[in-house]
UniProtKB/TrEMBL annotation:
Annotated region (Disordered), positions in chain: 169-212
Top-level taxon of origin: Bacteria
Organism (species): Hafnia alvei
Residue span(s) of domain RNA polymerase sigma factor 70 region 1.1: 5-78
Domain RNA polymerase sigma factor 70 non-essential intervals: 137-329
Identification of the protein by name: Sigma-70
Biased composition (Acidic residues): 186-209
Domain RNA polymerase sigma-70 region 1.2, chain residue ranges per copy: 96-126
Annotated GO biological process: DNA-templated transcription initiation
Length: 331
């Protein structure tokens, strides 16, 4: 037989006195459904706390419990029940947002220090992946070196480009700086932020970066960039030597901590470049498949992997098909 609200509340108080605590979920499961006002709920929880029963998000460890009597005070329990049952209704779960929120409060696991470190490492890995991708875009490195040349010419501050460097020999870098996370802000928004910065703070940022270390790092980046450029020009991007130099360039570039404005500029610039490439690829496919009636399967087979050269088109013409002649006529 289902217990009435008063009996349920008495059992709740007795349980709390025995345990020395109650969880939010336990309290919510025993409250009348028509108690939905947050102030009412807070008052009830305060009453329970005043009885010496702690209301907590989750059950504490045994060592953390405060010393309390193991035998429930019947008089106190009866008094509490009278107060809590002043608004009597059917006991059970509810769909009311306030009560649902309070019930779930104790079921959500709090983020531990280990969890924070794990998330920080994953963010750092993501940032490194983005920087490695950016490093393969020649214009990105050229732009960064040009910005440093402006610093050397005293036309810009070092803090306008970087916030520091990552030690490549460090075993761990637990907390990635927020300055590396691309925000996808427009250039106008980024400029507005710059205008609001305090010049004194900028001076302090410049002083926190060793100019000699910066000069050394940018020299290494410039030197590796030249090696990579020569390897690609000599052997082609797909050659093993070029791939090795590109990897070395990525490793050097990953050591730079870029300020948000610079990081966003490089990422957005690369994204726009990729959008332009995809647009051209769609136009090529439209010319071949829709206008020249080349079978889509043939187009995918020929074009994929040969996007940057014309060998696929020459192979299509060599097949001596009507759509090949039509494609040649349209180009």
């Amino acid at each position: 037989m289902e217990q009435n609200p008063q009996s349920q509340l008495k059992l709740l108080v007795t349980k709390g006195k025995e345990q020395g605590y109650l969880t939010y979920a336990e309290v919510n499961d025993h409250l009348p459904e028509d108690i939905v006002d947050s102030d009412q709920i807070e008052d009830i929880i305060q009453m329970i706390n005043d009885m010496g029963i702690q209301v907590m998000e989750e059950a504490p460890d045994a060592d953390d419990l405060m010393l309390a009597e193991n035998i429930a005070d019947e008089d106190a329990a009866e008094a509490a029940v009278q107060v809590l049952s002043s608004v009597e209704s059917e006991i059970g779960r509810t769909t009311d947002p306030v009560r649902m929120y309070m019930r779930e409060m104790g079921t959500v696991e709090l983020l531990t220090r280990e969890g924070e470190i794990d998330i920080a490492k994953r963010i750092e890995d993501g940032i490194n992946q983005v920087q490695c991708s950016v490093a393969e875009y020649p214009e990105a490195i050229t732009y960064l070196l040009e910005q440093y040349d402006r610093v050397e010419a005293e036309e810009a501050r070092l803090s306008d480009i970087i916030t520091g460097f990552v030690d490549p020999n460090a075993e761990e870098d637990l907390a990635p700086t927020a300055t590396n996370v691309g925000s996808e802000l427009s250039s106008e928004d980024l400029n507005d932020d710059d205008e609001e910065e305090d010049e004194d703070d900028d001076s302090e940022d410049d002083n926190s970066i060793d100019p000699e270390l910066a000069r050394q790092k940018f020299s290494e980046l410039r030197e590796q960039y030249e090696k990579t450029r020569v390897a690609i020009k000599t052997h082609g991007r797909s050659h093993a030597k070029a791939a090795e130099e590109i990897l070395n360039l990525s490793e050097v570039f990953k050591q730079f901590r870029l300020v948000p404005k610079q990081f966003d500029y490089l990422v957005n610039n690369m994204r726009q470049m990729m959008d332009r490439v995809r647009t051209q690829e769609r136009l090529i496919m439209k010319l071949c498949v829709e206008q020249s009636k080349m079978p889509k399967k043939n187009f995918i087979t020929l074009f994929t992997g040969n996007e940057t050269n014309t060998t696929w088109f020459e192979a299509a013409l060599a097949m001596a098909k009507p759509w090949g002649r039509e494609a040649k006529r349209r180009t």
